[in-house]
Design a protein that fits this description.
alpha+beta; Alpha-D-Glucose-1,6-Bisphosphate, Chain A, domain 4; nine-stranded antiparallel β-sheet; 203 residues; single chain; 9 strands; 5 helices
Amino acid sequence: MDFTALLADAAWTPLTTTRRTETGDVVVALKTIEGAPCLRGTMTVTGTSPNTLYDVVTDVPAAARFSSETLRVSRVLGRVDGKVHYYQHLDVPDWTLVADRFWVLEGWDASSGTRRAFRWQTFAWRSIYPQVAAEVAAAGAIEPTPNWGSWLFEGSDSGTRAVYFLCTNPAGSLPQWLAEAAATKTLPNTMADVAREAQRRGP
């Protein structure tokens, strides 16, 4: 996973700008890295700090409560060598005629100075957590690969600048119109969910 290329400002192609009450404009851009599509969403959140936003995106159990998507599961599996292992299962609506998605990821603190950052990536999890492998097999859920990215939070005079990076392929037989919705709707909604929860928690 080339995080240097992911975080670099060069080569991003603007896709869409979506306005949300909690965030103002969410600007979404696209870049291809290592053959995979990567999305970058940028927003400014007022009334809350980088630390609070960081706490929200690393609060795995709470995600099932504040996410506008239906997370059937959102739980921490363990902590190894300073990294958190976690499992989330997304309930895809039946009308889409596609299977549920799930991911098992390792995440870690990549903060530097006053900038808070959280990164994640896939890892060889099946032998470590066989019960999860059995659970997703029974549910018929599909694991998108690759799946890696980062949140960045940095304070500014106008509020906290938040950037969300996500590199993944939806996996499976996903219609193009539904894949495009990830850029135009799902990603901005995820960012708005985080902003709303951070504002609820306070500065």
